[in-house]
Amino acid sequence: MTAQIDHALEEIRRFRPSPEFAAQAVADESLYRRAAEDRLGFWAEQARELIQWETPFTEVLDWTNPPFARWFGDGRLNVAANCLDRHVDAGYGDRVAIHWEGEPGDSRSITYAQLTDEVKRAANVLAGLGIGQGDRVAIYLPMIPEAVVAMLAVARLGAIHSVVFGGFSADSLASRIDDAEAKLVITADGGYRKGKVFPLKPVVDDALDRATGGSVQNVLVVQRGGNEVGWTEGRDQWWHDTVATASAEHTAEAFDAENPLFILYTSGTTGKPKGILHTSGGYLTQAAFTHKNVFDLHPETDVYWCTADVGWITGHSYVVYGPLANGATQVLYEGTPDSPHPGRWWEIVEKYRVSILYTAPTAIRSFMKLGRQIPHEFNLRSLRVLGSVGEPINPEAWIWYRHVIGGGSIPVVDTWWQTETGAIMISALPGVTDLKPGSAQVPVPGISVDILDDDGKPVGGEDGGLLVITEPWPSMLRGIWGDPERFKETYWEKFGDKYFAGDGARRDEDGDIWLLGRVDDVMNVSGHRLSTAEIESSLVAHPWTAEAAVVGAADETTGQAVVAFVILKASQADRVTDVAEASEELRRHVATQIGAIARPRQVFIVNELPKTRSGKIMRRLLRDLAEGRQVGDTTTLADTSVMTAITEQVR
Ligand code: WT7
């Protein structure tokens, strides 16, 4: 955090929008003015302009039962029809919705008319499997067009999807299926990653053996990897046997604006992931509004590419709902950035003439490491807007992104938001805002934030404090699935009616906001949220482990990295003779239990952990150690010699 503050204080560069860009920009100052004079009126106008309502709303916000908001409550719409049919009806059926690029090099371009047909077919199949309004469907797919089709087919029926990232383990998938009581799982045999097929259907089979709820009645399987899969007759069905032959006639029914659209699980401060619940009308409004204005979308000419997987919120709002609601043409890529060669992303930008690119700082930093000669082999001149999300982007990476990828003169927008906020909350608007590398800058029009101290008082001057959102917003989470108490406790208890985001922030003299990282026990690894408690409980579940402490340590590429300190059980001490092997085994264990993204960078086997007299582990000291710093103040430790002993063991 101090390193980031230092960066923030040193950073003085500013970039004015070019007059040419400003002249053609979608957004202008009037959005801020209008939102400031009548915030609810502003959102109502956006909702009417950007969304097609089957029944127009008359009520904008109902906040009589905080923190449970209702937006556009008496309006009715079909989210999928907003993303599909209305564009076809408006005459844009031949516009490409998705240029899909498979990792092995196969590709498909799908128009809005074709995508609409495919979603109608899938909706008919799902309805035939008994899926209707309010039912939960788990989606566990690679980045293939069927992932988008599956999400929209669920939405079309007024059902609720729960997309689980394909990198999560059978255990993680099972607990998400159980928590949501999913009736159907949509998966693939496998997908491509780093030149190999990774299995998905076998993981689903394993998850369904572990799931205790018994809620799943069917599994729908897309053929992609061609890998061998087991089959449960009566339960499992191939997508190509059912969807391909289904009728493409399907009339979209309208649902209430507050009809649940999806659940997406994210890590909190406890071991159990939270099922963040989003609903329809408000979510779609803010996703579409921000996608249009933050990326300066001109749907007739732009080719947009967001590199996020649909398993994360960025994929929900800025691969599926925002871009499709806006009728954009976009690229969808299945694989990793370096497969089969390190220039793959730039090759894709050149091939499809991508004009808007939205990605994460961790990716930018790994390209920086590889050097500018790799992107320079490709023609990137089609790019005109660059976006960043997931963690603070350090000014060096921002400048590199603008210069090496963007050619030196195009806007870079750093967008702050969360799974819970549903859509972008803080960002510059290209063509309007003077850009400042390293700062997420200002709330988007219609959003109100503040920075408070621990007692809820606004911080003065440029001091750091806690970021809060002071007014309800259209795409806000409506709750945690099945746990209203946890929803209130996590976000609303600290500051009453203000939403507590869990991030530290400061405002500079121009009023620009700098994000300073999480203030809770949540880590940010490659822009993904991981909970220290969840990884600790996974480590403790291993038969060798007596105790474990996990910290997020600064990492040059991934932002933070998971570093674990583990005490082995005395009874195992004889068996575990090779410390390196033991720590490798524990790393593997976490990857199998939670997923590869949670695999610790390092596991240190130690004899003791630093604890206060009341038995609380002092993670701050372990973080000092993991980051190679002088260990800080140890006076509150029950035994002050412990840190010396641990330091010796680790070094
Ligand atoms: C957390 C939310 C929103 C999609 C990706 C992550 C951090 C996100 C930024 C940014 C500084 C950022 C915050 C936030 N974060 N974007 N531009 N600058 N920090 O979604 O998994 O829900 O994580 O990511 O700490 O709370 P998520």
From TrEMBL:
Where N6-acetyllysine occurs, the residues are 616
Keywords (alphabetical) are: Acetylation, ATP-binding, Ligase, Magnesium, Metal-binding, Nucleotide-binding
The answer, when asked if Nucleotide-binding is one of the entry's keywords, is: yes
Which GO MF terms are attached to this record?
Answer: acetate-CoA ligase activity
Q: Outline the extent of the AMP-binding enzyme C-terminal domain.
A: 534-616
Its top-level enzyme class, in one word, is ligase
Reaction catalyzed: acetate + ATP + CoA = acetyl-CoA + AMP + diphosphate
User: Which of this chain's residues are annotated to bind Mg(2+)?
Assistant: 540, 542
Q: One Pfam match, by short name?
A: AMP-binding_C
Kindly give the PROSITE patterns that the UniProt entry links to this protein: AMP_BINDING
Keyword Glycoprotein assigned to the entry: answer is no
Superkingdom per UniProt: Bacteria
Q: Which residues bind ATP?
A: 390-392, 414-419, 503, 518, 529
Q: Which residues form the AMP-dependent synthetase/ligase domain?
A: 90-481
Residues bound to CoA: 193-196, 314, 526
Domain Acetyl-coenzyme A synthetase N-terminal stretches: 29-83
Question: Which cofactor does the UniProt annotation name?
Answer: Mg(2+)
Record EC number: 6.2.1.1
What's noted about post-translational modification?
Acetylated. Deacetylation by the SIR2-homolog deacetylase activates the enzyme.
| Family as reported in the entry's similarity comment | Belongs to the ATP-dependent AMP-binding enzyme family.
According to its UniProt entry, the function of this protein is described as: Catalyzes the conversion of acetate into acetyl-CoA (AcCoA), an essential intermediate at the junction of anabolic and catabolic pathways. AcsA undergoes a two-step reaction. In the first half reaction, AcsA combines acetate with ATP to form acetyl-adenylate (AcAMP) intermediate. In the second half reaction, it can then transfer the acetyl group from AcAMP to the sulfhydryl group of CoA, forming the product AcCoA.
> What is the recorded name of this protein?
Acetyl-coenzyme A synthetase
- The source organism is Agromyces soli
